[in-house]
Recover the amino acids of this structure.
């Protein structure tokens, strides 16, 4: 603001206070990364490659996480495949087709859904979804159950991101379409959705990251068996669920191995976030 | 109207149902399971027999303590960082982008990772053990980016003309921040605080190995205390016959979050805020 030679002392104090809090905020991320690296460094140095092998037998000193990495990816990918199309079509429909009386309550409901804790989604999965799948294809707690619950969890934010992306398009685009007497559907498919695609895609990438990092809901409905699933009805264990399950009693190298999976998760998140930033052209990601 | 539009208008009801139906089913299922034990006494009694009997009073207390620790750190630091971003950093500059990336990464970091860090750093290295303090501090790191971003948005929303007027009057920076900027951004900052409360209440994985599982009332912030969300998980997964009470606790938690949502809606005074979590 003003440039004066003698800043009043309160101003100088304020400036340092602000810098300190910004530094603290940035340092908390640095601290997390450093602590993870410090705990896992020696282990990674001596047997880093072994974590990508496929046998997880902590008792025997085998810390292969391949099956759980696959579990995380499979559960999240299927969830994304189910949630993203529904979220995008519903956002477009609410904006361009739905009666106003339906649009507002639906968006309020979706915002509410976004705030519901993951344990509550997990509890619902455990009480309703798992017994229901169990009737068709036992045991019920499975890859499919995890993906369904995750899909429901990432749907609201994917929808809201799409809604924002569509709102930010120049209004002249749809008006030009109307002037040309094009169908709204045609304009949507050929002009509006492609125009909003980078933002929508960026939001979807972030939701994929959220799905990968989700712990509680997945832990409660996936069955948590360390294995390569052969069908969507097989139980799986994800990296996050593994941390939550085994942190309670893990010691020594076993515990370090869990920190390695934490490091993996934050690295993947960083990659996905960079991708999302690239897609949007350095704008802030919506939270 | 084109024929394709008529089809689209009708077919859109399918994804609408796909979203609305599960949510309704979820609330109905929780109500059906939990309403039997839900009563005033459930809120006012301490749990007994590992949670199979009694209520959730001590958990409400622990949750409140954890929340207080979390906010005591996240609100001042978050507000400071937001002020730094809005006052000292030019939008689009290198500092803005670097700090922005750090905050976005912090916001996107999986909550178990905060749990791992909190366990290692607060509980072990700093020697705080499984305690409300460890849990609240780990949680505060998690809600920090949310707090910063919403406060920053509120601060940037203060009209430029106010700033110019303050400059013309040679108001000191501290005077400008305290007398003009903060009062004008107050409701937006309040939204940020309430959003942070909502996020903190919903979190479980961070608290599993920082605040711990202990059911009884905490005497101080150095005691372990179990949050509502952790209770839901534990009752559902580890305590046979605990599902009723898990569902009832979930209903209480959802009711709290709905209240928070309504409060934000009132504060923002816009029909649809676009700001979630």
């Amino acid at each position: 603001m003003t440039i004066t030679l003698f800043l009043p002392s309160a101003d100088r104090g304020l400036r340092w206070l602000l810098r300190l809090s910004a530094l603290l905020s940035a340092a908390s991320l640095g601290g997390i990364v450093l602590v993870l690296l410090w705990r896992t460094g020696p282990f990674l140095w001596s047997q880093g490659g072994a974590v990508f092998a496929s046998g997880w037998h902590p008792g025997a000193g085998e810390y292969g996480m391949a099956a759980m990495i696959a579990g995380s990816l499979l559960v999240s990918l299927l969830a994304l495949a189910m949630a993203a199309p529904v979220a995008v079509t519903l956002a477009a429909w609410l904006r361009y087709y739905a009666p106003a009386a339906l649009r507002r309550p639906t968006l309020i409901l979706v915002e509410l859904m976004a705030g519901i804790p993951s344990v509550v989604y997990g509890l619902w999965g455990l009480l309703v979804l798992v017994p229901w799948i169990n009737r068709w294809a036992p045991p019920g707690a499975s890859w499919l159950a995890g993906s369904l619950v995750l899909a429901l969890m990432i749907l609201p934010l994917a929808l809201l991101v799409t809604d924002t992306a569509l709102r930010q398009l120049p209004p002249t685009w749809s008006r030009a379409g109307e002037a040309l007497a094009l169908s709204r559907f045609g304009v949507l498919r050929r002009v509006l959705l492609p125009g909003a695609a980078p933002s929508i895609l960026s939001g979807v990438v972030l939701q994929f990251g959220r799905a990968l990092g989700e712990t509680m809901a997945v832990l409660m409905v996936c069955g948590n068996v360390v294995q390569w699933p052969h069908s969507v009805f097989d139980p799986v264990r994800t990296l996050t669920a593994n941390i939550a399950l085994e942190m309670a009693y893990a010691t020594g190298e076993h515990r370090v191995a869990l920190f390695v999976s934490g490091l993996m998760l934050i690295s993947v998140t960083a990659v996905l976030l960079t991708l999302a930033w690239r897609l949007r052209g350095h704008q802030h990601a919506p939270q | 109207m084109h024929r394709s539009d008529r089809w689209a208008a009708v077919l859109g009801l399918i994804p609408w149902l796909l979203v609305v139906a599960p949510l309704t089913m979820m609330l109905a299922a929780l109500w059906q399971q939990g309403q039997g034990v839900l009563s005033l006494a459930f809120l006012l009694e301490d749990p007994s027999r590992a949670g199979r009997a009694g209520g959730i009073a001590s958990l409400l207390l622990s949750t409140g303590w954890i929340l207080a620790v979390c906010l005591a750190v996240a609100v001042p630091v978050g507000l400071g960082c937001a002020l730094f971003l809005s006052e000292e950093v030019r939008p689009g500059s290198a500092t803005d982008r670097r700090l922005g990336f750090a905050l976005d990464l912090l916001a996107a970091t999986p909550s178990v990772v905060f749990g791992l860090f909190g366990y290692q750093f607060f509980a072990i290295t700093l020697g705080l053990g499984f305690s409300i303090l460890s849990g609240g501090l780990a949680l505060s790191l998690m809600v920090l980016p949310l707090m910063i971003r919403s406060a920053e948005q509120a601060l940037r929303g203060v009209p430029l003309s106010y700033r110019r007027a303050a400059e013309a009057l040679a108001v000191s920076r501290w005077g400008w921040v305290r007398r003009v900027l903060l009062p004008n951004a107050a409701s937006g900052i309040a939204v940020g605080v309430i959003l942070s409360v909502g996020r903190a209440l919903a979190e479980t994985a961070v608290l599993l190995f920082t605040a711990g599982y202990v059911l009884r009332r905490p005497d101080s912030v150095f005691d372990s205390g179990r949050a509502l969300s952790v209770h839901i998980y534990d009752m559902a997964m580890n305590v046979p016959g605990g599902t009723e009470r898990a569902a009832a606790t979930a209903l209480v938690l959802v009711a709290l979050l709905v209240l928070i949502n309504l409060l934000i809606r009132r504060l923002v005074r816009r029909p649809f805020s676009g700001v979630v979590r």
Observations:
- Chain A has a mean pLDDT of 86.
